[in-house]
Amino acid sequence: MLRHALTSGVSRVLIGLGGTATTDGGTGLLAALGAELRDGADDPPPDDPGNLLLRVEAIAPGTFPELGEVELIALTDVDNPLLGDQGAAAVYGPQKGATPGQVTELDGRMAGWADILEATTGLALRDRAGAGAAGGLGAALLALGARVEPGAEVIAREVELSAAIQGADLVITGEGRVEHPLGATGYLFDAVMPIHPHPMSVADAMDAATTAAGLAATAGEVVRLVRAIATR
């Protein structure tokens, strides 16, 4: 998608770094933009995007993408670095099913990838805020010259959200997780409704049928609540 945007002649690109099922450090992104990745034998890694991070040992000289005057903005609401206890693998890997052993392996490979990016670009990336966002995709974007901005604020400004909700009777929003006790944030909302109404295993929570049923039930609760408020 980024390559298509760039070839279309755009001068400004906003990329939202939200949930992703990968922890690849942006290897796939850079490869799609033309970076020639090399393994330990100085050969292209096998054509298996899922294993690029585990195979790449270098970027061929002269192949790192150049974006020219394009303004690249990475939108994220997290400030995780690339490595360590708060890094991409440790924080987001388990959310996607990575075992403790896999997290250790991924973090080690990510450290090697940071070395490659820093040697290629001359930029210190591993400790940059947001480098660990979206499974390390933030690091690749920073290597391309992107700047990181707070996603929610930028999107709200771009769509003129404040003006859109002025005088609104109802605003419905969704979030994957409420990080603070409801007592601390409850003043922001008249109601908070979870998709899953009771404790369950991670496997059950991620089941497509369970989630679909939960979404439908929650939507029904929202409608009933709105009708009750409107008719009281």
Attribute tags:
43% helix; 11 helices; two-stranded antiparallel ribbon; 232 residues; 2 domains
Describe this structure in words.
This protein has helices at residues 2-7, 27-32, 52-55, 88-92, 100-121, 133-143, 151-158, 161-165, 182-185, 202-206, 208-231; strands spanning 12-16, 37-38, 58-59, 71-76, 147-150. The protein has 232 residues and is mainly α. The chain folds into two domains: 2-151, Glycerate kinase, domain 2, CATH 3.90.1510.10; 169-231, no CATH class. The strands form two sheets. Strands 1-4-5 form a three-stranded parallel β-sheet. Strands 2-3 form a two-stranded antiparallel ribbon. Helix 5 (100-121) runs parallel beside helix 6. It is globular and about 70 Å long.
Produce a short descriptive summary:
The chain is mainly alpha-helical and 232 residues long. It is 43% helix and 8% strand. Helix 5 (100-121) runs parallel beside helix 6 (133-143).
Q: Cα-atom Rg, whole angstroms?
A: 21 Å
Averaged pLDDT: 87
CATH class of the largest domain: Alpha Beta
SSE arrangement, N to C: HEHEHEEHHHEHHHHH
Helix residue percentage = 40-55%
Shape: globular
Number of strands: 5
| Category by helix and strand content | mainly alpha
Distance between the termini: 48 Å
**Low-confidence runs (pLDDT<50, min 5 residues)?**
none
| β-sheet strand percentage | 5-15%
Report the CATH topology name of the largest domain: Glycerate kinase, domain 2
Largest sheet, if any? 3 strands, parallel
Q: How many domains, in number, for the residues?
A: 2
Question: Can you tell me the CATH superfamily of the largest domain?
Answer: Glycerate kinase, domain 2
Strand order of the largest sheet: 1-4-5
Question: How many alpha or pi helices?
Answer: 11
Q: Can you name the CATH architecture of the largest domain?
A: Alpha-Beta Complex
